Amino acid sequence: MIFNIGDNIVSPLGWTTAENWSAAAAEQTGLRPYSHHFGLPEPFFASLLDEDILNERFSKLPYNQEENYTKVEKMAILSATDALANAGVNPADPQVVFVFSTTKGNVELLEDLRGYEPERPYLWRSAQLVTRHFGNPNEPVVVSNACISGCAAQVAAARLLQSHDYRYAVVIGADVLSKFIISGFQSFKALSPEQCRPFDADRTGLNLGEAAATIVYARNRADIPAGKPCLCLTGGAICNDANHISGPSRTAEGLYAAVSQVLDGFDVTDLAFVNAHGTATRYNDDMESVAMERAHLTDIPVNSLKGYFGHTLGAAGVLEVILSTQELLHHRVLRTVGCENPGTAAAVKVAQQPMETSKTAFLKMISGFGGGNAALLVTVGEPPAAAEKAEAAGEPRILAEATIGDTSAILPDGTRLSSTSSDTKQWLSELYNHLGMAYPKFFKMDCLSKAGILAAEMVMRAVGQANEELKNDWGVVCFNSAASLDDDRTYQATIQNPENYFPSPSVFVYTLANIVAGEMAIKYKLRGETSFYISEHFDKEKLKKAVADIFAQTNAKHLLAGWVDYDNGHCNVQLFAFEN
């Protein structure tokens, strides 16, 4: 367990946690309709931050005037500044690590760089700049795991602290909206034309929102500032559905597994409420209700905060944990704004009105594209007895490895293959044929996923696991530098010209870095954790450390893990099968 010693929310409802809590408690919403915004031909409902006020507030901070920060970077810095002040932590201390959660960062710069350097759309670049602003000497950890990123970042922070690498972790979740993001969700027909209605029988889709949120976590309870309550992240888990890259499991396999792990040994009658993802899409809300039914949580009040803030993407898991913690501190469960007539696949106890509570724990659930699901357990006051920590597993054992470059590959047995073409895309097809694969879905994938699947096939064959049997103790952990920028550029081309505007859902679905990990999980039925990290360069020792931490702190037995990168036609994959 780790301890929240300071936090902040920057959103259209306020600039501090207290302001956001007051607004939400008064049932205010940041959501409103927009027409012709971002140059989009279709109207949409969303929660957008006032950029003029943002700039005014940011100008009052001490910072390097030569550095021209983007909107999402300013929001992250403002949020972290307030959270760190609340925590009384010096961000320049080498015992502090920054953990960033974002899905798309500065993706709007693909349309127009606006004078920024070409590297600015890379997620690691923004993280470096924010960390540098605070004078922190450590390399930031960047988590980009679709909608579950914010919760996954908190799980990553817990592992870093519990392995005694650092004393404090500053977890920042931040995302902004743009033509790129709104048009993509519109291409999916996923956005509601009105204010969203989570868990309502007549729900019509989600609304999106902008926010930055920060939690400063401490490893030791003794580091909680005097006079502050004990806010404890007691447990967290990540599991995959191994079902579909953009649709949740109808039986809630991944979410149920994550919830079961987090609640193992915990008396669910001690839960004040469940804070669900509650996106107000048909399938997400149904799936969450099924997970709650399977976990015997249907008598526990459940709420969604999307009617206040919208879906804030990489900020959602951080923001919603902070606000849910405020619910415990104020002994009040917020109502699910927008839900008038509950109707989901399984009947659950939706909080339709504010409710008083004296209980001191909540469960956070979240799910996302790529089949990822996460659950967190948070308590206020005396934390539950800690489970006995697993012994460190030492250096994980490599069972097999494979490498794929632009025109060559090295198989696990050391055989080197070379392409007959200088074209990397053609080479990936050649390699598919050489391996004799029979997986038609391969030809619908983007190049990043193709490269990942080919490497996974070589490794899984080498360890005798290239089959469709369920593997609950296998997970996937990937790193890369470009996230999904190769696909982002392709998608941007479909919306760049107003005279030739054709946003493609089949392209947009691959504009998330973690989709390749989801594709691996689906093909090989891997139901364990799937996580995706962004780093400027491949560092095998960092990879092995991440794998070792997962083995030491979860029940995982095997992991497919490695560097899976595809950028501007260049392929760089080094994938390993690790055993605990």
Q: What can you see in these coordinates?
A:
By secondary structure, this protein is an alpha/beta fold. It folds into two domains: 2-380, Thiolase/Chalcone synthase (Peroxisomal Thiolase, Chain A, domain 1); 397-579, 3-Layer(aba) Sandwich (Peroxisomal Thiolase, Chain A, domain 1), CATH 3.40.47. The protein is 31% helix and 21% strand. It has 16 helices and 22 strands. The strands form three sheets. The protein has a 17-stranded mixed β-sheet, sandwiched between helices. Strands 2-3-7 form a three-stranded mixed β-sheet, with no helix packed on it. The protein has a two-stranded antiparallel sheet with strand order 12-13. Helix 2 (51-59) crosses helix 3 (71-87). The longest helix is centred in the N-terminal third of the chain and has 17 residues, at 71-87. The protein is globular. The relative contact order is 0.14.
